[in-house]
Design a protein that fits this description.
31 strands, 9-stranded mixed sheet, alpha+beta
């Protein structure tokens, strides 16, 4: 009998809480998600150079669960790896990598690939536990150049190694690594062992150091801030006076005014003149706009901001955003954006999230009873928030009193439709707007669907194609939207990725830009959205096409539509606009939605949203004409905001993203 294989089998099938042999001690990490203990990560050694891992956490009914085996060669590179389980969206994963002589064989969502492998590159798995990060850290620490080549392509490097002594006397080091994702990767080590990883809301911390997690997070936050401040200093180009010469200007009417000189001074538009009509003063910065289009800075009306993503908004031409759920420290981040300490857009609307109790709660701000909800609304109002966003676990009987409280304070109410409730019911009880097009489709299915779960996606995917836009039920609903002045925030691009993309194939949502990204970001474009097999593939696509038809129909019938992403800043916004045009909305109307109309909806039309004398010079220059070809919206050369100029190429390069050229 092969006892090594038997031992690995036993270790991977140990029930929770079952003790393992002391010969192979298990190291256990807590997985904290949004400040809640959400799962665990375990690792153990099986032979001299082989290891086993188990990793899981939960997030509102979603979350990964992996069992993993890794074998290393004498240089610490992976020569064999096997991962089984489900990913965050509960898609089954069976991934492997093996090597023999000078050949590497990988099997993953992309299929089976064979290539040259000499044991000196790191295969970076598509899905799996945090084990790969510890292996990478160990390789980088040993590397004379501070770099490690990835298999089959790519390079990572450690750019900082910072020692710290924690308050409990523990000595640790923080590695800052570039080359995997848009943001740097941060790995906390002790010797050559990983003790912690902190990435946004997801924290993985060795159990004996759990009490130090928040201290380590504060240290890492400071390092991240200093790095972003340095980027802002290096990539901000201050403009006192400038002339954008011979440019085509997008007008309030949605037309182009050709061959204009737009004069900017002290962050405002001073004059708009026919090119050649007036001499340009000496010493003024001249920007050639020949053959290019000048648009007002755009509004992303559905974002969740953090300090890393501000750069991508500006690189993508988005100068103003609504934040539709965040922590209560959001205004601190907004201040950093406004002062240009960190590059980012103007956050013009703050929406405080409230969710009810239960296993699928959003976890950002959960209330246990109605009284707590009333108090939270007052708290948000006192913080200067203009809007309340209710989430899926709110009890239906709470909606009316919560909405009444918000309205008494002059706040709008929006959100997901709570479980066991329809959009019609939510509107009649006080909603002013609805996030996500799937929530509208659920209105025509049933009020018995537990929309806290992935059913809020799979039910519209399965039955959305059946919605009859000529039916009385649908027409009555549209009349309700119009009579109540309900705003619809459809975020259709995320549903294209969910419903149309297929596992192992490049999502149409990201097809135009995938090769511009670092390796892990690229791989996320192949994950296939929600699982679909057989007839579901065509069925889900039909349902997405019906979503586009509804967006176009709502527009034609006079329902207010706002473009937002709820995802990858800039790039996903461009796709959202493309999909509106694909749905049948004229490009000039889509661009008005993105600029003039969004400024009106947010109450800022007197300051931004149009290229007019006296308004703020929040502007973007496009190397093309998006009125003739909406995809030209991706060809942004620079963005102007707050008297500063930002070149998209420079911003993207700082993230490891290639420019459109």
């Amino acid at each position: 009998m092969n006892y090594s294989i038997l031992l690995i089998f036993l270790l991977f099938n140990i029930p929770s809480g079952f003790s393992q042999s002391s010969q192979f001690d298990t190291t256990i990490y807590d997985v904290v998600f949004r400040e809640n203990n959400a799962g665990s990560y375990k690792k153990w050694q099986t032979t001299d150079r082989s290891f086993g891992y188990y990793y899981t956490y939960t997030d509102r009914g979603r979350g990964p669960k992996y069992k993993e085996e890794i074998s290393l060669n004498s240089q610490n590179f992976i020569i064999n790896q096997r991962i089984k389980g489900v990913n965050y969206l509960n898609v089954a994963i069976d991934e492997s990598f093996s090597s023999k002589e000078s050949t590497g064989l990988s099997k993953n969502m992309m299929g089976t690939t064979q290539g040259n492998f000499n044991g000196d590159q790191l295969y970076f798995r598509y899905d799996g536990s945090p084990a790969i990060y510890e292996v990478l850290a160990q390789l980088l620490l040993k590397s004379e150049t501070g770099q490690v080549d990835l298999y089959p392509q790519g390079t990572t490097e450690v750019i900082k190694k910072i020692p710290f002594k924690l308050s409990n006397g523990t000595s640790v080091e923080l590695l800052v690594i570039k080359g995997l994702e848009l943001d740097p990767t941060y790995i906390w080590i002790m010797g050559d062992k990983m003790v912690c990883m902190i990435s946004g809301n997801l924290h993985i911390i060795r159990q004996d150091l759990s009490g130090m997690r928040l201290e380590m997070k504060a240290i890492q936050d400071n390092i991240e801030d200093e790095s972003l401040k340095e980027v802002a200093q290096n990539l901000t180009h201050k403009l006192d006076q400038a002339v954008i010469q011979n440019v085509n200007v997008f007008t309030r009417a949605g037309t182009l005014l050709s061959n204009q000189d737009v004069i900017v001074e002290a962050g405002k538009i001073k004059a708009i003149l026919k090119t050649g009509g007036e001499a340009i003063e000496q010493g003024v910065t001249i920007i050639d706009g020949t053959g290019k289009t000048l648009l007002p800075g755009m509004f992303d009306m559905h974002t969740h901001n953090d300090k890393f993503r501000g750069i991508m908004h500006l690189a993508g031409g988005v100068t103003s955003v609504r934040d539709l759920a965040n922590n209560k420290q959001l205004k601190s981040l907004a201040g950093q954006f406004e002062r240009n300490e960190i590059i980012g857009p103007n956050i013009v609307i703050y929406s405080g999230i409230i969710d009810g109790p239960g296993p699928f709660a959003n976890q950002r701000n959960v209330i246990e009873n109605l009284e707590e909800g009333i108090a939270e609304i007052q708290d948000y109002k006192d913080l200067g928030y203009q809007q309340i966003k209710l989430y899926s676990s709110i009890k239906p009987e709470w909606v009316l009193p919560l909405a009444d409280k918000a309205h008494q304070l002059g706040m709008r109410v929006s959100g997901h439709i709570p479980a066991y409730m329809t959009a019609t019911q939510a509107i009649n009880q006080g909603y002013n707007e609805i996030q996500h097009i799937n929530m509208l489709f659920l209105n025509f299915l049933s009020d018995t669907i537990d929309t806290r779960t992935p059913l809020r996606f799979t039910m519209p995917a399965q039955y959305g194609a059946d919605l009859d836009l000529q039916s009385q039920e649908y027409q009555d609903f549209v009349k309700l939207l119009k009579s109540k002045n309900i705003l619809v925030d459809p975020t259709v691009a995320i549903f294209e990725n969910m419903f149309v993309s297929q596992l192992g194939e490049l999502s149409p949502t990201y097809q135009a830009i995938a090769n511009r990204f670092p390796i892990i970001e690229q791989r996320s474009f192949y994950t296939g959205g929600i699982p679909k097999v057989g007839v579901q593939v065509s069925r889900y696509k039909e349902s997405f096409e019906k979503m586009l038809a509804v967006v176009a129909d709502l527009f034609r019938q006079g329902v207010a539509i706002v473009p937002g992403t709820d995802g990858l800043p800039g790039f996903l916004y461009h796709r959202e606009l493309e999909l509106y045009v694909k749905a049948g909305i004229p490009a000039f109307e889509v661009l008005k939605m993105a600029t003039i109309k969004s400024a009106e909806i947010t109450g800022l039309a007197d300051k931004v949203g149009a290229i007019e004398v006296g308004k703020q010079a929040d502007l973007i220059l496009i190397d093309g004409n998006p009125l003739a070809e909406i995809s030209d919206i991706r060809k942004i050369e620079w963005t102007m905001k707050g008297g500063n100029l930002y070149y998209s190429k420079e911003l993207y390069n700082s993230l490891g993203v290639k420019d459109f050229k």
